[in-house]
Queue: 2 jobs
Job 1
Amino acid sequence: MHTALLFLALCVGTFMPLQMGLNAMVNLHWSHSAPIASLISFFVGTIALSLFVYMSKTPIPPFATSTVPWYAWFAGLLGAVGVTTLTFLAPRLGALAMVSLIICGQLIGSVVFDHFGLVGYTIRPVTLMRILGIVLLIAGAYLVNRY
């Protein structure tokens, strides 16, 4: 099962450059605005998720029972900023440069979140091997952006 989940994560990872390329097409050929293209992307996603929740009969719990920390609701804002920024960057940087830099940022953030157990992550201390892996990935990002 663990291998299947890793493969699923790998496959879904291919969606990011595809999504950003499609958003960039909406920007270039219609809206001429990264925020508008991102709004359309979120709108279509909201419709798709709404249909999925409706068709799967997934109950939406009442907000009154929520124990979610107040800052967790900002995830949507981070998503909007991220998608809008990437929609802007995609045609300017290209898929490989953009994704390689995103991955470096994600790795740096992830090692900090894991090490300190931030936002609900299980504490996973920084190790020399993890640092080496991140350094190698940053070196890879440098190489694909330089040459």
Job 2
Amino acid sequence: MFYEPKDGHGLPHNPFNAIVTPRPIGWISTRGSDGADNLAPYSFFNAVAYVPPQVMFASTSSKDDREFGKDSTENIRDTGVFCVNIVEYAARDVMNTTSGTWDKGDDEFTRAGIEKVDCSLIDCPRVANAPASLECRMTQIVKLEGEANYLVLGEVIGVHMRDDCLTDGIFDVTKFNPLTRLGYRDYSVVREVFSLARPDD
């Protein structure tokens, strides 16, 4: 099968998200200029550079009560900071609760019963028990093609790691099993890890 996205795919559901999988989930926490906290998952998320460490996520929809995409993007535009919380399998249900289209000012931490603590370097909350959290300073917001598509880039200026996720100095994903996003309504979980040596090692 071949199709050009501009012409449609002819399938019951768009296969694009199912093709580009698995995708890590960036559970983005922000605090608005009005002091309201927000927490939302984004599956267009990844690390993009080592030095300095940088991450990105993309917001691809908008809300009627926001002028600039969604709550996360508007908060980041206004404050210049955000936190990326890593999602473990055990948090799948509460993460899903935070994916709802809630009203502006509705605190997803409270709605989902998630404990929050303040970040160390930025004025922003983070998920208290996340396996890891990355405190970020926004570097760019790029308007992408499409009506409501925004790419947010940030430099990681602080890193939190849960102590039980470290094994002999290695951040061990098998200790918490990262949740990953697939296509449609599907998710997966990382439970098995193997290593490959590069040819020039």
